[in-house]
Backbone:
């Protein structure tokens, strides 16, 4: 929503994708009233292959080219892996990994043919280290970061920009959906979604490969690289256990 509001305010027409059609229509109306412009509503469950195919087709439609793809949809699960419902873990990989991969693949050829266009893949600081008690989520985001950095290099010099966004704790519906108690996260670690979007679009404009918004979040990958892997794993487990038991 924060991306949609910012891009509409900047004068872009949008294609809004999520599962909830009524919410998409409400947002499209809100954006039209506030900024003019037009938002197409394309309801789709990106974890479902048939539904995902409709969005891939929209991205491949060269009669109405998409200038910027934001692969934002994703969710987390939280708890000991052996106890988490396997269908939820399966769906997480289909949404966070497979859908993002397929939509990137669908968007790139028309962008490369036009010599312009951008893709922002939303990852997380959780992807910089293994995430005990969010094992699948952290691993899915490690994939997103590595995959996107690789494609960034592949398209270098083509006019197409591909960037990974790695936010930390951001105020959205994410924590509630993941079953995490937000009160257990210290205040200074939180960021507003609007600020995350501003930072992302600024780095994208500059042609950067990765945006990690916020000073505290920027420190995480640096410390993660400096410390021995065993230490990183243990510290990550202590943090995960705290969140899980709160
Ligand atoms: N919030 C954080 O603290 C945080 C931190 C780091 C990274 N991230 C990443 O940021 C991204 C956005 O998360 P958020 O914080 O904005 O979470 P959110 O408030 O839960 O929003 C998730 C969005 O994705 C849509 N969505 C979920 N499942 C979908 C599906 N199967 N098919 C299509 N759309 C789907 C949701 O709409 P419907 O439910 O209507 O489908 C909703 O619009 C995620 O990739 C997340 O991993 C978030």
Residues:
């Amino acid at each position: 929503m924060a991306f949609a509001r910012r891009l509409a305010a900047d004068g872009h027409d949008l294609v809004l994708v999520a599962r909830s059609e009524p919410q998409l229509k409400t947002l499209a109306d809100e954006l039209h009233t506030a900024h003019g412009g037009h938002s197409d509503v394309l309801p789709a469950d990106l974890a479902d292959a048939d539904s995902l195919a409709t969005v891939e087709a929209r991205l491949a439609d060269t009669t109405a080219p998409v200038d910027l793809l934001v692969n934002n949809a994703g969710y987390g699960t939280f708890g000991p892996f052996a106890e988490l419902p396997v269908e939820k873990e399966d769906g997480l990989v289909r949404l966070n990994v497979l859908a993002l991969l397929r939509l990137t693949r669908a968007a790139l050829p028309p962008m490369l043919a036009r010599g312009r266009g951008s893709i922002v893949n939303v990852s997380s600081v959780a992807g910089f280290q293994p995430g005990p008690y969010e094992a699948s989520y952290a691993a899915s985001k490690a994939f997103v970061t590595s995959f996107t950095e690789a494609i960034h290099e592949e398209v270098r010099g083509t006019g197409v920009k591909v960037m990974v966004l790695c936010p930390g704790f951001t105020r959205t519906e994410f924590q509630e959906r993941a079953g995490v108690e937000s009160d257990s996260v210290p205040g200074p670690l939180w960021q507003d979604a609007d600020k995350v979007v501003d930072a992302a679009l600024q780095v994208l404009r500059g042609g950067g490969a990765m945006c990690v918004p916020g000073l505290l979040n920027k420190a995480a990958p640096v410390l993660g690289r400096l410390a021995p892997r065993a230490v990183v794993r243990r510290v990550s487990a202590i943090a995960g256990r705290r969140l899980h038991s709160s």
Observations:
- The chain has a mean pLDDT of 95.
- The radius of gyration is 18 Å.
- The pocket of NAP is lined by residues 18-20, 23, 44-47, 72-75, 95, 122, 124, 167, 169-170, 172-174, 177 (CB under 6 Å).
- The longest helix spans residues 86-114.
